[in-house]
Specification:
By secondary structure, this protein is of the alpha+beta class. Helices cover 22% and strands 37% of the residues. Strands 1, 2, 3, 4, 5, 6, 7, 8 and 9 form a nine-stranded mixed β-sheet that branches. Strand 1 and strand 2 form a beta hairpin. It is globular. The N and C termini lie far apart (30 Å).
Amino acid sequence: MIPISKGHAYGNDFLLAPRADVRSAGADDGVLARAMCHRHEGVGADGLILYELRDDGAAMTLFNADGSPSELSGNGLRCLAALVARTRRLSAGDTVAVDTGAGRKTNEISACSPRATVTIVPLASCAKQSVGQSMPFQICPK
């Protein structure tokens, strides 16, 4: 099973999956992105972000909903930075560095915003996406 998080930022939504889990499952990145991002047969999203947590933040590889690679999405970057902030229990003023296809981007964690959220979505499997219960949380850690 690949653990998936779904992030929403300013009208865009992204699925976020740990790169190591996708690799160990033997999934093709583009095929996985198309299947999972499909709005009717998958979870539904604008793109899939494969990420790797690092000491100072994360690294990401973005795939569009059609399975094609992309260097960067600002809203996708916000979603990943929010996930890192929550995971690391960062506070307002802390920074998250993310290595992307367009270079290193640094994000400063700011006060809570209701317009950018991250929702944890457990999936039964990648072959048959069943969403189950989601557990929403705000992007701003306490």
